[in-house]
Amino acid sequence: MKPARTSRGVLNRNRYLGFAAPSVMVMFAIMIFPLGYAVYYSLFAYKLGREPTFVGLGNYVNLLTDRGFIGAVRFSIVFTLVTMIAQVVLGMAIALLMENVGRSRKLLSILIYLPYFISATASGIIFRWIFMSDWGLLSQVLSVFHISSPSWFDDPNWAQLAVVLVEIWQNTPFAVIIFYAGLQAVSSDQMEAAAIDGAGAWRRLWHVTIPNLRHLIILVITIRYMDAFRIYDRIAVMTGGGPGDATESVSLFAYRTAFTNLHLGKGCAAGVLILIMLAIPVSALLKLMRNAEAD
Amino acid sequence: MNSDRHKLMRRASLAGLIGVAAISVIPFYYVFTIASKTPAEAFSASFQVFYKITWDNFRQLWVDDNFLDYFVNSMIVTAASMIVSVPLATLAAYGLIRHESRFSNRLLNSMLALRMFPPMLLLIPYFLLADTLHLTDTYTILVLIIVASNQPFAVWLMRGFLITLPKELDEAARIDGCGLIKTVTHVILPLSMPGIGTAAIFTFLLSYNEYLFALVLTGKKTMTLTVAVGKYAAEELIYWCTNAAGVVSIIAPICVVMVLLQKWLVKGLTAGAVKG
Question: Which residue from A158, A287, B177, B205 has the least number of CB within 10 angstroms?
Fold first, then answer.
């Protein structure tokens, strides 16, 4: 039975909101308010050191006809899709392998998870050296087999491949962690029932495991989409967006616009467009996830 | 026969995982080999499994260069972020769970939306505001930004832990004569220590690894490790070995945390995501 609602009870319940107040205020002051500020300045031609002048949607029109921006959007989309798919497939494969091993799992999982937890700046620098021509690890290893290494950072395609590979190297462990935890939760009854029905390993994977993990697959896709699409630090230290603008992601473009060319208004507009490009797919994915969890 | 097949599967899986682990770890070992060689050796053959280790590059970095200052800066920012962020998130999660209303659910969901904000969008306002408020090159601005951007994740993480504490617990404490504050300090907080610890570790990782905001908002006085290492690495290759020592120094604490606290890191990532 529910206790009767006394005026004291109502008062008490609202006191709980007081607990949330400091956190909510911090988020409002430091995230929502600056967001408004950015949207406001995205409507101005504002070069650092000069007076801002109102241009309406001028910055947005400017960006959507800017080949640099369109190129950055195209690169970010391809980068995000390729790494996301690779991480889901590899993450699932590694998690399944982990289910099969016994005692050595603990040590191996520490080593396998490690890349995910180090700073993207550090991994960017390490791989800059690994892919470096002449002295880099890769060209040294390849020279043992008398293969000459491509000069990764001078060729647009090889440079793009390099940043994709490092993103996969660093963030696949996230998918492994989530999927492995999900595999523990798939009931062994269901698996046994399927096995008794004569389903082989592949059939069990397709018809029992993957459907059971559907909401986790969507979760991994959502998180990886957000992080990959807005990536800045690793690419900035690894290639700086180069050669030319071959590996320039949308965030690198916005940074260059605002802090190298000092067009703050246009930089804000680029930031707003990045948010929109994140928000639409992510809200669709979250809806999908809610549906997957419901059944 | 079936058990033979089983054994074979196990062996093949183990081999596969060892391969994956090697790919994960070789880059770390590689950068360590550069950091622990003389420049002449590093340039003649950068990758060898066995060689004579020298610690000169680390001495150069920590004693002669001002790497210690950057480390101290990083520690100040990280410690302050943890001290502010974790209590805020814990209280918020507790309050929103217990308030149990459409409003509190809506607040929680809008925090999810905040997680999506691209840092680049907020960077320009931060840069302008820091300038107006004379906060550029101070710890304050960086800590505030890290605390705010960490809140959505930390609140959801704490929610994952706190939601397992039944409401009857609060009621029992109330019957025993505890006020609301005392219920939180004496009953809820002790029981949510695992969650608080996990939130602390993740706040540590986020602020220790933060690069973009620190790059723009710190200066001579407050430059953090990531920014310093990023800056050094862009310099001439003559300092290759010293720079590698910098990278090793920045990664080493993370490796220690990983080995000691792996269980909590995994728990933190899966809390709320995986049921059961």
Answer: B177
Mean pLDDT within A26-40: 94
**Whole-number mean pLDDT of chain B?**
88
**Other C-beta atoms lying within 10 Å of the C-beta of residue B263:** 11
A145 band by pLDDT with thresholds 50, 70 and 90:
confident
Same domain, B130 and B18: no
A-facing residues of B in 153-172 (CB < 8 A) are 155
Domain check: are B15 and B81 in the same one? no
Residue A281's nearest CA partner among A225, A216, A231 is A225
Residue showing tokens 């962020």: B85
How far out from the chain centre does Cα A100 lie? Answer: 29
Q: Is B250 contained in some domain?
A: yes
pLDDT confidence bin for A7, thresholds 50/70/90: very low
Q: What are phi and psi of B80, to 5 degrees?
A: -65, -40
| Cβ separation A101–B124 shorter than 8 A | no
Selected residues 167-196 of chain B with any CB under 8 Å from a CB in chain A: 180, 184
Band the pLDDT of B276: cuts 50, 70, 90.
very low
For residues A75 and A208, which has the higher predicted lDDT (pLDDT)? A75
* B120 and B183 within one domain: yes
Q: Which residues of A touch B148 (CB under 8 A)?
A: 26-27, 29-31
Residues B68 and B140 in one domain: yes
Do residues B17 and B79 share a domain? no
Classify residue B275: in a domain, yes or no: no
Domain presence at residue A11: no
The Cα A77–Cα A250 span in angstroms is 9
Which among A19, A114, A177 has CB closest to B95? A19
- Read off the DSSP letter of residue A47: B
For residue B14, which residues of chain A lie inside 8 Å, CB to CB? 100-101, 104
B-chain residues near A286 (CB < 8 A): 112
Our count of domains for chain B comes to 2
Predicted complex ipTM: 0.90
Distance between CA A233 and CA B226 in Å, rounded?
Answer: 10
